């Protein structure tokens, strides 16, 4: 009987039309969205990596070095020691009595006790109260201004917070998003996915990648001319991919601009706040500037455990803080967070450990040494790579101020432009592809971030380990010279 | 100079209009969306909890018991031992040489090595390959059908996967979502937030909460009549909040229905697949049914570490598997995942540990004992609470088959309905509020899940610890009788 009914069913199925799920069914806004940091160059790198894993291969290098993404531990940076010891213990039902220092035990016990049921239970949707208090204390110590734990949301990395805010504010083409060009493409991808109208304001490469208010105003007007009202202004400070650390005057001018546009929310991507190098302008939070100016503009500030010196990308911990946002709006954000129940609890704890490091003793000393060593190494690497790039023929690289990236401009010979066109690629994508295929280095073409028409760039991290950075830089320089030479030669072939 | 310019700026700011972010700016679809599992009853519970924390209080109970949410560890369920030992070690730079069993060390080492840079690095956006292979093996062992790691995506809990699929398929009112009533309100919230047209099909309480195809067809036609085309059919099996475990014939009928509607994707919420009790129909995956019927309908199956016997809600680990979905569509899902970089790595590892438990020795024995003890305890508690509820005057509770919930129907006296109306509440919300205020028990009103007009229900978990379940049940029964009595009495007051 069973068999018969199955046969009958199968026969009836054969006559109907369902043939699986095809691309025609997909939300066109998802198809349209682009996210270059993990785009086709990385796909190609994966293919090459598969070749490299074979016993023999024809590539002139033996490993892929991923400078496409700010993923420090993937390139050998050690995880933060104290934080990992606490995490190792907080997942146990009890912290062991032996072999664990007092400070580690106390922190692990406190976090475990801060959620009814421990780390395996859903936390409050907005995030564990104890950790939101730790974040508030960190912010108020940083800015010298009171911070409210109820204005803080813990999220799965900063990206999830940006998604929540975009979803909250953007529901169709009438809603505009202003983002820098170049920009970390999360913002353009989100604006596209949520069907908003994207306006790009150009950063000024000739002025250390400043964010000129005149450009922001032009982008604002452009969005208005296209029939939309800008609802979010994204400022990434320190900049990604530019590394610019904005001085106070620039921040004030931006706040003043936002204040003149009721309904505009300042989205302050401040995830690189620990990554400011040399004599660049020190990091100042937008919250502090808004407070000092007695402004009432709405600000959402994002932070993350993935950057700074912790580099805990895989744990997906982050937070955002709301300033000048009404209670009713906050309730909507809590509902949004509730639908996914809560952000991952271990990522939340990683946030707590980032903002509230060891307080004294041996652990504090070790923590401070670790932090200083990692940040100064990042700075040395930034300078070395920037200097080497800037020295190349046809390459110009702004002196790095912060973050984890360099965004050099490249001038390519006409023959290279023509070859790129013939390959159906933007010139910088063509360059990045050739770089990968010649050296194993993965960088992201500038076209993935936005750039002034007719200019070409790429983004590279300076995250390879310090004892390899010179070799990496040399590989890049060697490629670059050969690339130029091949396109200057009469029968130029690479 | 600086001071002067600040004063001038502050003066100019005072004349403009930005006054923070208000509710008018919010996406109306976010405002419209509802998610009752963490709704006003829980807000009230938090207020009461604050009172209970005081030295003295007037409440006739001393603790809040959260039966509103499937959060087992919050109610005392122990975390899975082996999995936590591996997690405790995988966050360390190296697994210690001593004090760790061979199996724990091998698993921790394997996971650490599976991501370049370890757990602090971003993984592949789709999820760690090793773990996707573990999931594929689990599925193929379960179903006796090959599974492809490339068809599997690791996600921050099952909820994130549901969000990705909804975002992929629903972009406006032209796109329909069919979800059960009652349903876990994630689906209606997602449909609303992504601006889709929601159609509800009614489950049949008189037939163990079956999912009749006739009702699904009616909902389909209703959505079409409203000008939309249904793109997703959500089936929750075992059911939430109903607990129903669907027999093979029911699954076949649903597959046949989907096959007759090209473009319709079967969203198979199978997160309770381990939670089937007694002589209820054993869990059968939709993938297996589709395979057995030689059907080509698109299916997305969701699973999670939050349920089953692991109950690892806080770690936010989950996956979905695609069946009959084109490569192009898969690429869009990879892009969606990429924009948030990757799901949290420790949650991914928790998925690996769920699908690939210890293989032999002492650890296997301990694991099997732990699993059997937890699942049989859940079953005993389900039966005890269901029996007690069903015995109450005016309460009818379907015999539990699976999941972690009961969804009893309650018949309320007219005077109670009137009192609810006077309080501006749905009758079951009124009932749940009074229950909370009388006993400290938190349940969710049926109106938050959808129910047939004129019927009233509530959802309760049966997760309080076994040694407390009788007391909890008695509290509930005591309240219920007093509630009814108060509304039957001439001058009925509660």
TrEMBL record, chains A, B:
Its cofactor is pyridoxal 5'-phosphate. Residues 103-473 form the Aminotransferase class I/classII large domain. Homodimer. GO terms for molecular function: transaminase activity. It holds the Pfam family Aminotran_1_2. The keyword Signal applies. It comes from the Eukaryota. This is Alanine aminotransferase. Keywords: Aminotransferase, Pyridoxal phosphate, Signal, Transferase. It comes from Aureococcus anophagefferens. Belongs to the class-I pyridoxal-phosphate-dependent aminotransferase family. Alanine aminotransferase subfamily. CDD domains: AAT_like (cd00609). Residues 1-20 form the signal peptide. The gene is ALAT.
């Amino acid at each position: 009987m069973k068999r018969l009914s199955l046969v009958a069913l199968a026969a009836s199925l054969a006559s109907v039309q369902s043939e699986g799920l095809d691309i025609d069914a997909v939300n066109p806004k998802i198809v349209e969205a682009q996210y270059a940091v993990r785009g086709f160059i990385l796909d190609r790198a994966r293919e090459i990596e598969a070749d490299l894993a074979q016993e023999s291969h024809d590539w002139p290098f033996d490993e892929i070095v991923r400078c496409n993404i700010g993923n420090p531990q993937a390139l050998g940076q050690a995880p933060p020691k104290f934080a990992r010891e606490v995490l190792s213990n907080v997942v146990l039902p009890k912290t062991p009595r032996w072999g664990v220092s007092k400070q580690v035990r106390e922190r692990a016990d406190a976090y475990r006790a801060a959620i009814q049921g421990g780390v395996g239970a859903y936390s409050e949707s907005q995030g564990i109260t104890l950790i939101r208090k730790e974040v508030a204390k960190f912010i108020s110590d940083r800015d010298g201004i009171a911070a409210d734990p109820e204005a803080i949301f813990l999220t799965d990395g900063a990206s999830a917070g940006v998604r929540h805010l975009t979803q909250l504010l953007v529901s169709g083409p009438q809603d505009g998003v202003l983002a820098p060009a170049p920009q970390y493409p999360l913002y353009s991808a989100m604006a596209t996915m949520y069907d908003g109208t994207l306006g790009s304001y150009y950063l000024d490469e000739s002025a250390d990648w400043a964010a000129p208010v005149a450009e922001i105003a032009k982008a604002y007007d452009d969005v208005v001319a296209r029939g939309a009202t800008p609802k979010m202004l994204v400022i990434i400070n320190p900049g990604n991919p530019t590394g610019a650390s904005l001085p106070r005057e620039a921040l004030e001018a931006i706040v003043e601009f936002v204040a003149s546009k009721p309904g505009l929310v300042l989205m302050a991507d401040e995830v690189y706040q620990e990554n400011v190098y040399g004599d660049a302008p020190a990091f100042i939070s937008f919250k502090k500037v808004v407070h000092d100016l007695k402004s009432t503009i709405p600000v959402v500030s994002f932070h993350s455990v993935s950057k700074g010196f912790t580099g805990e990308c895989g744990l997906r911990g982050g937070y955002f803080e709301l300033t000048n946002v009404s209670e009713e709006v906050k309730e909507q954000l809590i509902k949004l967070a509730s639908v996914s129940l809560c952000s991952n609890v271990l990522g939340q704890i990683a946030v707590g450990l980032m903002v509230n490091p060891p307080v004294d003793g041996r652990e504090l000393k070790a923590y401070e040494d670790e932090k200083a060593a990692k940040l100064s190494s990042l700075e040395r690497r930034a300078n070395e790579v920037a200097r080497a790039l800037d020295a190349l023929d046809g390459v110009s690289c702004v002196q790095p101020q912060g973050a984890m990236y360099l965004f050099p401009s490249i001038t390519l010979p006409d023959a290279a432009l023509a070859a790129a066109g013939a390959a159906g690629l933007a010139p910088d994508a063509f360059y990045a592809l050739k770089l990968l295929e010649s050296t194993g280095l993965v960088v992201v073409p500038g076209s993935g971030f936005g750039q002034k028409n007719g200019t070409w760039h790429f983004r590279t991290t300076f995250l390879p380990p310090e004892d390899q950075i010179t070799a990496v830089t040399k590989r890049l320089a060697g490629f670059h010279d050969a690339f130029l030479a091949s396109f200057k030669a009469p029968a130029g072939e690479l």
